[in-house]
Amino acid sequence: MVVVVVEQARTIELLWQPLPRSPARILPSRQLSSYSVSSDRSHYGRVIHPLALMKLFIDVELSPDEIPSATELFRILRALTDHVKTRDVGKLFQTLILRLEDGSQLDRVSKEIATLLTDPSEMMLEEFQAAFVAVVFNHELVLRQQSVVPFMFLLPRLPDQAKSRMREFLIPKVLKHLTVRRPVEASRMEFFAHAEAFATLVNLEFVPMNGAVTTIITLLRKPETRCAAVTMLGKTVELCLQQLTEKCDPSILQDLNTALQKVTEDAFQYDINYIEESMGWCPPLIGIGDSHDSPSSGSLSVLGDANTGMVMDSSSVSPGMLRKWQHQI
């Protein structure tokens, strides 16, 4: 771990290491004893003169494996100055988020990301948002038929401020992608990850159930958003079936059933059978095997070519609806 302290045009490079009998200590990488910072049990967190009198800008270079032991370091450095920056933090966030492919890493990764997010700066939060989107909506995941759900489960474990900001950031981003105008037989690979992310946000109660179902109904009624809507509904049924049946207003569920009955395109028949059977609305019209047979619940059904001439259309999900959702949460 390397700490670079810049005071005006002067640069001091320090190496940091935790010591067994002291919370933290910074050691100069060359003979600069007058610029050392130490902490021990008798004066924990105390900063030694003359560093306290300088205007400092501090860069911290961390590897992912060093994050668990960096908490005390950050406390000491922020006692020196508000200008503490972690180098290449975007790449660091991506490395940590990618570890969530192994679900058993969730506890560790969430704690390490929380350590980095103790930096309250807007820049740090924006770096995390960009890293999260880069990992979760990487097209390679879709090509490998890899679920985004393990990554989404990080969100409830974020510090409160970061969790709230991620919800405000992620919901409009996901919906904007899902409300793009597409042909009925569009390739689902274009938006499958976003549909699954939407369903996971519902599962995590980041999106209220009634608002989510009302949005799906609206999108089902328009041919240009129907393909995404059917996929959203299939994933929501898969991930949130109990919540749907227990928490959604019965009148809204009835509206959903009615809207679904008006979807008659052959491209969606398999999805509709899966949804109706899961919801108990009617017997399946054709034989359905286990959940892996359904394009909504697991495997990807690539229906037609991607529409390269897409136009963004956010009218289906208005800012007013987003504000209503946020008020309900």
TrEMBL record:
Protein name: Uncharacterized protein
Species annotation: Physcomitrium patens (Spreading-leaved earth moss)
